[in-house]
């Protein structure tokens, strides 16, 4: 770990996966930081989260040793020989497709290891690396502004602090996105409703197995990750918590604009069950909702983000590129952001270089992350039979699924880091040369003075 540089300090807003990954990275780079979180403690809410190989590699590059710890808390498929299967495709309809003689259709890749974890377990690993003295809880940001020295943060408790820069990792609804885009692109500040909401459920694995039963090959349906597909309806189930629980995400299409003031809407259990039942879903899947909190979670995304920074304020994670979860790639993109940004901030020698670091970060991370946002929407359309020319053709859907993740998973992160470092050094060199008059320039200036 390098020595701390007190003259340059970073304020990180939000202690989700993105903010935590960045904090760990800055710690290792010896960059001074404070992490401000609105909640009274590190969050324990949330359900299952799966990390792809890119996400695991990015986190391992930020903090060596992560992968070993992640293995201890994550779960794969239970059936032997299915380590590299991301999901088995089945149908949501009555009979799950088996009445038509369909077998589960696996897709994945040799580079991919099937893993999902309970979000709390993942956050526990990340927070274990962050010293308490760097974290302030109960600090909800109300407003961000900038002056010639850096950024100024105003909290809802009335407190005001200054920092050399702010990294807004405050999620899809945070305050930082407005501070970055508000002046120039106000139309892109608010996230857009994707026309779907989800119900989420965590079921004891024993119960999930009893309810779903075995497939035609004799394997437990709940034991391996499943993507049940149907006309405008998708349900995913996968093991978490070392295979002791099954995580379920039930996507419900919605033609209306989201009108509720909150992004979650409590409904009765009966309404929830009927809401899914009327889509023609196999009753076994409806039964799994018995363990769900009857809450509709509206899904929003940032399909367009014209820039990730504005002077000394920079976006990271969902505040920059919130996406639909159909490629299970959102957290991975947060961690990739954190990897590139922590390495760049580690190169900054004085605060005047911060904006250059952000410029390089934006150039490397934004095209890739925004492409993941766009393709996540397409993946949702694909599994919900909404892609023209593909429709409900399961062979085509599964072939597409087998190909579509490779560019995300196999991305060369070391190359991103190298590119970030060389672009930053080149920009800094340019700035130094521009600031120093050349010998010829000095001679000309002296001659002019003499004359
Ligand atoms: C149903 C579903 C399933 C998903 N599954 C996967 C998956 O399998 N794999 C995957 O990679 N991704 C998945 N994702 C996406 C992933 O969860 C997110 O991309 C990721 O958690 C975002 O992390 P973040 O740190 O950017 O934001 P968040 O997790 O939203 O954290 C933001 C933090 O900022 C704090 N905050 C907010 N506002 C303020 C404020 N004004 N002041 C101070 N603090 C503030 C919040 O309290 C919070 O702690 C899924 C998403 C959903 C909805």
CATH topology of the largest domain: FAD/NAD(P)-binding domain
Ends: how far apart?
55 Å
Strand order of the largest sheet: 5-4-13-14-15-12-17-16
Q: What would you report as the Rg, rounded to the nearest angstrom?
A: 24 Å
CATH class value of the largest domain: Alpha Beta
Give a short account of the largest sheet: 8 strands, mixed
Number of domains: 2
Number of extended strands: 19
| Ligands | flavin-adenine dinucleotide
| Name of the CATH architecture of the largest domain | 3-Layer(bba) Sandwich
The share of residues in extended strands comes to 15-25%
Could you explain how this protein is built, in words?
Helix 11 (354-383) packs antiparallel against helix 14 (413-435). This protein is an alpha/beta fold and 451 residues long. An 8-stranded mixed beta sheet has the order 5-4-13-14-15-12-17-16, sandwiched between helices. Strands 7-2-1-11-19-18 form a 6-stranded mixed beta sheet. The chain has a 3-stranded antiparallel beta sheet with strand order 8-9-10, with no helix packed on it. The longest helix is centred in the C-terminal third of the chain and has 30 residues, at 354-383. Helix 1 (17-29) links the parallel strand 1 (9-13) and strand 2 (32-36). It has helices spanning 17-29, 53-62, 66-73, 119-127, 176-181, 205-212, 269-277, 283-288, 318-321, 330-345, 354-383, 394-404, 406-409, 413-435, 439-450; strands at residues 9-13, 32-36, 48-49, 85-91, 105-108, 117-118, 135-136, 141-147, 150-155, 160-163, 165-168, 192-204, 226-230, 233-240, 245-253, 264-266, 295-301, 309-310, 313-315. The protein has 2 domains: 9-75 and 115-191 and 304-429, 3-Layer(bba) Sandwich (FAD/NAD(P)-binding domain); 98-112 and 192-301, D-Amino Acid Oxidase, Chain A, domain 2.
